[in-house]
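Annotated sample (chain length 155).
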Amino acid sequence: MDFGRFPIISILEDMLEVPEDHSEKSRNNPSRAYMRDAKAMAATPADVIEHPNAYVFVVDMPGIKGDEIKVQVENENVLVVSGERQREKNKENEGVKYVRMERRMGKFMRKFQLPENADLEKITAVCHDGVLKVTVQKLPPPEPKKPKTIQVQVA
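Output written by the structure step:
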């Protein structure tokens, strides 16, 4: 019996992070890593604000310390915000069971395509009260080209 056809098996494999090479996958199905990334991106809400001199990316990160957040620029124009929220593990929680778990745990990620006028050398990130603000300064607008005057000679 091929269990790969049942969606519940695929969901359980994702939850348990079972390696992909244990079963045959159809070529039409996206990889497990792709699905994990898609879920992580969908679960991370963000606002993008354009100011006259900068772009500001505001991402809610409740319960995550600033040093657990990674901000990177990939491929010269993609801003990536990622990290992982883990459940607290301590000896006081032994014997404790959750009645309801609604807060998302695990990896999170967001990717933003940066516009051409983004200054990749002037990016700052500040996390305060569970809100991450990444500011990307804009490049100054190019100076208008002055027309070149060509002197006409009389022959």
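Annotation: Strands lie at 46-50, 54-60, 69-74, 78-85, 106-113, 118-128, 131-138.
Annotation: Residues 22-26 have pLDDT under 50 and may be disordered.
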